[in-house]
Task: structure prediction
Amino acid sequence: MKMLFGIFMVFVYMGMAAMLAVNFFEWSATPLWNGVRWFFVVLFAAYGIYRGYREFTGEHTYGMRRPDEDEDFSQYGTYSGSFNEIEKDDEQEK
Result:
């Protein structure tokens, strides 16, 4: 479900950038508002690309810790199984 929401949000950001680029909201054509509009075009497009990249690479864990790269977690059946083991180790250290 998290992945579907992430993909949906990529479309929202890119759609917003496209709508601002074609002046869908008909902002006035003064130089100041054109500058603000294009700033938001670049901002929405850049964040949409960044978020799409994170979805594509699977880095959309939103604050969850990732296992250390040098440790071997291949014995766990799921990604969450490795987190459970890390939490057990943390509790033992305390």
Summary: The longest helix spans residues 31-57.
